[in-house]
Structures are given as structure tokens and as C-alpha cells.
Write a structure and sequence with these properties.
Layout lengths: L5 E10 L7 E15 L3 E12 L6 E12 L3 E13 L7 E16 L2 E13 L2 E2 L6 E14 L2 E12 L7 E10 L1
Antiparallel strand pairs: 1-2, 2-3, 3-4, 4-5, 5-6, 6-7, 7-8, 7-9, 9-10, 10-11
């Protein structure tokens, strides 16, 4: 959880792919350093090491720069993501991704927000792919937060639709966070 400027997280990425029932894709150890935190605008740098469990795939080092515009009713979060494979199976190049989230807080009721979510994979920093070869997934999200004594529990569900032929056609995301 957050100190005044630092947060560490451990994330587990599990997916349901066509060829396997449930696949443990990777375990991510992430550290976040807050650059500044004003009333309606915050910024942070993220660094993570991803232990990839898929056979023959390289582990990943990931760097992110996050911007968050936030008020009582709406938030907009944008991440600029750079990812590099390390170890055996790595290609040696750094990829560039962008993620965006526009959330309308308390739109449905006091504990339930509705918003739009998107991920774009442009290719390698040194060689962006043409639009038809890029991966773009955008869709809708529901998000809720509960206080449980000394814990804070957040859950979000999202449906994303692929916009290009190389994108996954449909994706469901389920994210849970327990802060203590």
C-alpha cells in the first residue's frame, strides 16, 4: 500500500486462452514512486519485473509513466508503458504501449463507477507497426470499492473489443485489489 510517496504491489496474471483452461501468464512485482500529488492531478513512475511462466518466453522489465486527472466525479488515467524482454528468449528491443481509463465515479450509485478502458500496443520503440498490425483493445468497465475494517477492497470488471485483426477479438478483465 501507499506510503507518502511509495507503493509496492504483487500482481498475478491469469488468463483463459483457447488452448488451455486457465493459464498463469506471469507474476509481477511492481514498485511505484509518486512524482507529485496535487488535489486534481498526480503523476508516478512505475518499475516492475515480470516473471513470465510461459515456456520459451522471456521475463520482462516494465517501466511506466502515469498521469491521473481526478475530481469528485470523474477520473482520467493514462499510462505510457515501455517493456523489454530479458533473459533467454528476449528479442532485445523495447515495446511501447499506451493504456487509458476514463471513469465516471458514483455514476450508478455511491459505490459503483462506470467508465471506458483501452490498451494499445504500437510495436517496438525503434519501429512502430502500421495500424493494421498494432493491437488495440477498448471497451467498458464497472468498478467498485469497499472498506472492510482495516482493509480497502477494490474490484473491477471490464469487457474489451479488439479493433484490429491482430488484436484479441474479445477480452474480459477481472481485477481485484486488497490494500492494507
Amino acid at each position: 500500500s501507499w506510503t507518502s510517496f511509495w507503493q509496492s504491489e504483487l500482481e498475478f496474471h491469469v488468463s483463459d486462452k483457447k488452448e488451455t483452461p486457465l493459464d498463469w501468464e506471469k507474476t509481477e512485482f511492481q514498485n511505484q514512486v509518486q512524482i507529485f500529488n496535487y488535489q486534481n492531478f498526480a503523476s508516478a513512475l512505475y518499475f516492475s519485473y515480470n516473471f513470465v511462466s510461459e515456456k520459451g518466453e522471456a521475463d520482462e522489465i516494465e517501466y511506466k509513466y502515469l498521469n491521473e486527472f481526478n475530481n469528485e466525479n470523474v477520473s482520467f488515467v493514462s499510462n505510457f508503458i515501455f517493456e523489454k524482454g530479458v533473459g533467454s528468449g528476449s528479442s532485445g528491443s523495447t515495446s511501447f504501449d499506451l493504456s487509458n481509463q476514463l471513469m465516471f465515479k458514483k455514476l450508478i450509485d455511491n459505490n459503483l463507477g462506470f467508465g471506458f478502458l483501452g490498451f494499445s500496443h504500437f510495436g517496438e520503440v525503434s519501429k512502430f507497426k502500421t495500424f493494421s498490425l498494432q493491437k488495440h483493445l477498448y471497451g467498458v468497465q464497472l468498478e467498485s470499492e469497499f472498506d472492510l475494517k482495516s482493509f480497502e477492497y477494490e474490484i473491477s470488471l471490464a469487457y474489451l473489443h479488439g479493433l484490429t485483426d491482430t488484436s484479441t477479438n474479445h477480452m474480459f478483465l477481472w481485477n481485484m485489489e486488497l490494500e492494507f
